[in-house]
Amino acid sequence: MKQIKGGVTAAKGFRAACTAAGIKYRDRTDMAMIYSEKPCRAAGTFTTNIVKAAPVVWDRNVVENSESVQAVIINAGIANACTGSEGMGYCRETAGEAGALLSIPEEAVLVASTGVIGMQLPIDRIKAGIRSMVPGLESSIEAGNQAAKAIMTTDTHEKEVAVQFSVGDTTVTVGGMCKGSGMIHPNMCTMLGFVTTDLAISKDLLAEALRADVRDTFNMISVDGDTSTNDTLLLLANGMAGNPVITQKDENYRAFCEALNYVDTELAKMMAGDGEGATALFEVKVIHAQTKEQARVLSKSVICSSLTKAAIFGHDANWGRILCAMGYSGAQFDPEKVDLYFESAAGSLKIIENGVALDYSEEEATKILSEPEVTAIADIKAGNEEATAWGCDLSYDYVKINADYRS
Fold this sequence. Notes:
- Helix 1 (54-65) crosses helix 2 (84-102), helix 2 runs parallel beside helix 3 (123-133) and helix 7 crosses helix 9.
- The N and C termini lie far apart (45 Å).
- It contains 11 helices and 15 strands.
- 33% of the residues lie in helices and 28% in strands.
């Protein structure tokens, strides 16, 4: 497997386009389209929030019941959440407009929205945006990059990644893009994510691979503890690489899972590191756990701790906050066996051993914690399992951004 340049257009047969539809923003693009030259098998994971946006309801039905998917329409600025029957009707109108222009069934069109909750979409602008994008669909790397930029809200930069691997003598590509900066605490995935591949694979195995992978990627990040109404992760496979269809969990399936994990992990980390107001990506590894689930619960608890996040922002090696967050996580462990380390590009430092502070240098700790990517490693000495979670620091700007988000 190797990383290559690109995102959702890296795989064969996928095109993208974007436009400035004026949905909320007046100075940038705010709509994107992904289109496959051939019908795709589709898989998806969606928010566990009881309050589900209309596009989530639409997409779950399409993924579960449509024979194939061929296009995705995405808008930024308005979430189309808590919009009742009118909002659901706009999903159908959006899919219908795209389907008519692309000569595909409306049931083959997925829709996704992100932005302010409770506002109705300006459907005339949505339709005009679709009419603008269809003639501009391109398979270039640049088209995919521009699409990634168009779906941002409070994101500070676009998020995309692509890799290639081999199935026999066939080269297969997996690429993706996502957006997410605030309201990030997924129980399936985070905000909006779109992954494309030219692999030929059965729908059942595609879905199984995605469900398994989100547990250790998108489900292991948090910015602010809020699970969005719109969380959607979509995976499309059009089979245009030309490999024999994967129908069993053989070495080719495992190679795909490895590639998918790399793409999902990188996208998830990009979102965590670009949390609203964040100055650092905060990674927490729990090692030598008794079970995988124990390690997941402990690491996620630490990156969700507001006090720990504030300490990371202040470059303060306040290790007591980490041990405290582990203690209320609900997972059982022996605090008197825990070793804790801080690591970054500036070095590595052991902070506590067997639950007790060492005579470490505060100056060195501050230097390590001042890097843009910081890792805390907790060795709980209980077994051979481990897990990693990703979050960010908590800065003054997080409150500023969310205090006037609707303005």
